[in-house]
Design a protein that fits this description.
The protein has 3 helices and no strands. By secondary structure, it is mainly α. It has one domain. α2 packs across α3. It is rod-shaped and about 180 Å long. The protein starts with a helix and ends with a helix.
Length: 164
């Protein structure tokens, strides 16, 4: 270990001289190029940072614009859906009203038909009752009256039945 710590003074002197000459040559011939390269690199880095900041700003603006457009589109969709629901409810109400009107009309028609059928049945029943009364009266009296008298007699009898 003594040999490492005991460096001859002459070697040390020439090492410093060689280092000085090397440093002088590097600074003289390569110093400007190194400084220019470092400055250029610094400018490139600054330009890249500025570009990144500008891109971030643009991205934020686009994001805000996209969000606004998305919110507008969502609002339009909600408006369309609510209008569609309202129209569907209106159509449903109209269909129910139309069905009710059709039902009422059919019920009224059916009641009219029933009334007409009832009147016809009563008329037919009166005629049959009149014929039966005439036949029964004929059998009882065993003497046939003429047709006009028969109908008058039966009609009077039916009128009395209607009053009761």
């Amino acid at each position: 270990m003594d040999s490492i710590l005991n460096i001859p003074h002459g070697l040390m002197f020439w090492t410093f001289v060689n280092f000085g000459i090397f440093l002088f040559l590097v600074v003289k011939f390569g110093g400007k190029a190194i400084v220019n390269a470092i400055n250029q690199r610094e400018q490139n880095i600054q330009t890249a940072i500025d570009s990144a900041k500008e891109a971030e700003k643009s991205a934020k603006e686009l994001l805000a614009k996209s969000q606004t457009q998305f919110d507008n589109a969502q609002q339009q969709i909600n408006d369309m859906l609510s209008k569609g629901r309202e129209q569907a409810e209106i159509q449903l109400r109209r269909a129910v009203e139309d069905a009710e009107n059709v039902k009422k009309a059919k019920v009224e028609d059916a009641l009219k038909e029933i009334e007409i059928s009832k009147q016809q049945a009563l008329k037919q029943l009166r005629n049959e009752v009149a014929d039966m009364v005439v036949i029964a009266t004929e059998k009882i009296l065993n003497d046939k009256l003429d047709k006009d008298k028969d109908y008058k007699l039966v009609d009077n009898y039916i009128q009395q039945l209607n009053k009761n």
